[in-house]
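Dear support,

Our group has been running a series of protein-ligand predictions, and this particular one with NDP is the one our PI (initials K.S.) wants archived with full inputs and outputs. We had some confusion internally about which version of the output was final, so please treat the block below as the authoritative record. The input we submitted was:
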Amino acid sequence: MQRLHQKIALITGAARGIGAAIAKAFVDQGATVIVTDIDHQLGSAFAASLGARARYLPLDVRDETAWRSVMAEVLQSYGVLHVLVNNAGITGFERGVVAHDPENASLQDWRAVLATNLDGVFLGCKYAIQTMRKASQSAKLRGSIINISSRSGLVGIPAAAAYAASKAAVRNHTKSVALYCAEQGLAIRCNSIHPAAILTPMWEPMLGQGDDRAARMHDLVRECPMQRFGLPEEVAALAVLLASDEAAYMNGTELNIDGGMLAGSVLRPVPKS
Ligand code: NDP
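Confirmed final output from the archive:
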């Protein structure tokens, strides 16, 4: 039996990277998947490559009106939503290296990261709860909201302060959502996943295409106990677990997937000489 048989799942930022790997794993496990993103060309082509149980809908997670219309479309097409993966996220370095430290980051750059990483998750949780509540009135629904946070939500990151703050807030909001749904008597679980160093296009601005690319990659995982980047498919495996009914008693919890980085204290701050 496939682990997500007949589940309807929506994934944000799923045109590539971790979101795309989750979409593929969900389809492989029997779910019907709504791939959403702001890269419409890539998103539609990717959804088409997954076959008949996947479709693409445009969704900028910062846009509340877009959330309303996507959820209305989901209810109209399927009558139910079982799983939401709030995956879309940005580092703030997409257009090159800008100051993201606590002293020099601009308010505009800070807000841009929080708008996607935190407002986007807030809106996703809000509209998933409303949609799942509607569906649960007619059917016995077991919902799962999965928020993709980060190792950066558990430790400070001086050079990426907005990213770290946003991911820490996602970790905490996950717990508020889990408790709220339980208080409301809704069978909706909410958990967070905390990846670190997963090799996706997100790293490209930091790796570059120069001769030093291999050295940079090596450098970035030097202090990872497993000495390698993780794979998007390895994160997707955790998302399958949390989406499935096997995880029926997992609620408000956090799962780290980081090659062992958080197990020790090797990632200490190093003063610049
Ligand atoms: P990618 O950059 O590879 O993919 C993210 C996708 O989200 C892109 O398709 C991007 O579109 C899309 N996106 C960006 N902004 C929005 C938005 N406002 N609304 C909808 N979609 C949007 O990232 P990853 O796959 O690496 O990361 C996925 C999640 O995992 C993120 O939340 C990230 O913070 C988290 N994470 C990743 C880690 C890693 O090492 N890779 C480690 C820890 C956490 P476009 O390309 O057009 O911008």
